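[job 0417] fold request received: Putative spermidine/putrescine transport system ATP-binding protein
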Amino acid sequence: MSKLSIRAVSKVFAGGTTAVDNVSLEVADGELVCLLGPSGSGKSTLLRMVGGFEQPTSGRIAIDDQDVTRLPPEQRPTGMVFQSHALWSHMNVFNNLAFGLKLRRRPKGEIRDRVENVLELVGLKGYGQRMTSALSGGQQQRVALARSLILEPKILLLDEPFASLDQHLRERLREEVRDIQLRLKITTLFVTHGQDEALSMADRIVVMRDGRTEQADRPELIYRDPQTPFVAGFIGTMNFIEGRVENGRFLHADVAVDLPVADGPLTLAVRPEALALVHQGGGKAIIHRVTDFGTHGLVDLHLSDGTRVKCMVASPEPFHAGETVALNPRAFAAFRDNVKLYGTTHAQ
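[job 0417] inference complete; emitting structure tokens
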């Protein structure tokens, strides 16, 4: 059993810059939790504090109820995989992997067996004598993962490990890493700014902004039921339409829906797949561009107040640039003063 506990952790750098502001998080045994956010949100700083590469200004970090807040990295039961691979180019793959075990004075036979086993685990069986400089970027990242796993850490830490790889390789590697994580049942904290990676890999996603947690939830709830405008706009594509509620109805020049909230200004949040387009009905939204993705179409529109919105359609054929259409939201959320008042963005 390996669990991670982060309690009220903050990090203030010299000069007064607050990178992490009073964050608490519990990661259960075998769970993969993704820290997701834009650059400067504090996600990598939080990960580095868990690994011991940064010291918290305040708060507590525990692994299996043992306080590790002030322990150096080499004394923590964690394994870190960096974006830059951080491999020793003058060593072959075997020696890169064996280095940590040699420092721990493990027997030669055990080192050989563990290196062979971990190479097979990451799909690099037979690569032990290759120089790391002769490997592709994806192979180097597999070696970096193997180097962390060979020490059998209780907590695996991944700091944007796929950011330097091309899209196709990134997608393949994240599937492989997730398969390995599930097979080993290793507790994992993963940092990324890629929404697709978070949604496809994580058991839970923690969305961070300005050093704070905006929302922590299962991927499907983060997408379907965002609790703040920031989360709604950061995860996936979201249309925001500004209007007013009067007598239980949201009013905009191009959109009107029943909305049981108090009167006043309000922001409607609608996913492209939850927005239907109707040629009839006197609509005034103007189609700007239609894109055919094969599996679906995407229609870009201008509303009368200049707002740009996107709509996903099953087939792009009925729609053409310059036409006017009416908008019919099938599902939506409503925000006022950064507070969610109503709804879900998931269309049944």
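[job 0417] notes: The chain has two domains: 4-230, 237-344. Residues 160 and 192 are 5 Å apart (CA to CA).
[job 0417] exit 0
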